[in-house]
Amino acid sequence: MVMKPSRRSFLVTSAAAAAGMQMFDSLRLFAEPAARPGIQLYMVGKELAADAPGTLAKLAAIGYRAIEPSGTYAGRTAAEFRKLVEDTGQHCPAGHFPFGMGDTDKLLDDASALGVRYAISSLLPPRKPEGGMAGFLPLINGLGRDDFKRMAQMANEIGEKAQKHGIQYAYHNHNIEFRDCGNGETGYSIIVKETDPKLVKFEADLGWMACGGGDPMALISAAPERFPLLHFKDFDELKPPVTTLGTDRQNHIVELGRGIVPFKALVAQAKAQHVEHYIVDQDPPFRGKTAFEAAKIDFDYLAGLLG
What is this structure's pTM? Predict the structure, then answer.
């Protein structure tokens, strides 16, 4: 004889099943990688300046949700730009700011207005270049041990101010930091060693690291808690290492997966170390394609690695 369930027992069973499904969904979401590719807006800087709403809409259509501004806001204030980003269903977890070249407090106010968690310096000149901006590249390409020590000091100072704004400061590398400074040290190792881990995190540009002769996997695994963000840039030529900017090596930047930076292994390591943000950062110009076509190739490749 089959007993029919009472209404009470049916409701209790249903509620338990619903709770179980909700718990299952929570566990599944926790287990699955939440990360998806973000994009550094330097890649579409020209397009953004011409049509900011249209550019953000095209990036959203590709699948980008995390937007990393590159220090300019298409003629808008930081707050206005944030609204523009949010209107397209996107957000700014991080942004680049010209620290060392502008008022730090004002830049951090902009970071707060954008709503970023990470305020990042792309280059941190230890002193003003001679001859204005014309002297900037010679300054950057001539950095030595004392300069990198000064940059570490500046990074600590910015990081302390950033924390008062409720923001985490991070340093983004190029290839110049991998210059040999003697005694087995590079500029990058000096910056890592002489910065406070609580005040200064790092946004590792994997392509620039490899270009300068660094080993991204070794560097990140040595201090995983200091690398919450990664930039993905690919090169089709990496040897010999180049530690200056403005060279022919920059003509060897290609779409992700079309070069030789070992991203598959790097992503597997990054996922195991709980890296928070995976950001596409391909420098223009692009070979035979538009910025959006390149951005789509980059998104599809990185999304595939992230699963």
Answer: 0.88
